[in-house]
Amino acid sequence: MSWGFLRDLLSGVNKYSTGIGRIWVAVVFIFRLLVYVAAAENIWKYEHDEFECNIKQPGCENVCFDHFFPVSHIRLWALQLIMVSTPSLLVVFHVAYRENQEKHHNQKLYKSPGEIDGGLLCTYLISLILKTGFEIVFLVLFYKLYNGFKVPHLVKCDIRPCPNTVDCYISKPTEKMIFLYFLVGTSCLCIVLNLIELSYLIFKYSIKCYLERYTKKCQ
Fold it and tell me: Can you give the pTM of this predicted structure?
């Protein structure tokens, strides 16, 4: 899969972001997307082939793997990256709508189509809320699916058609757990950045509205 479209999307949004938003883009692009493509994807590439159980009962190994890994880590991360990045399209579409309105009326309707104010501010805040929500949902999903953020060395399986409790071994568990902690940590960092940016924008425009009302009142 090519991740070029996601890179282009993040680059496009970067033009309309605040300083905190640009830090978020850098974290997603450098510490999540590049790490995912360059390293994490290869670590989980053959996870099914390298999953071994100490029994040759037909079907037992497949059933045990499906039980302990109902969804592949790597596919869930890919879906997470896509979901947390796509709300930024709302901002891009809103700016494109403003630019189209100016062309249609053949006059300048906004100081700058990319300036975060009015309707675009609401769209930007909604995108931040959606991104934060998706991050939290996927962290909870990871935790529930895999019983915590751990990769055990050994798992015991007694699901049919296994005739008894068998020991199954996961390949490179320490390496996988390090990357798991890293990606969970960057996800938490993105949540913090989104909340900071959300608070900053709300505070900034609350102060702006208060000053405008105070000025009108004085006049």
Answer: 0.81
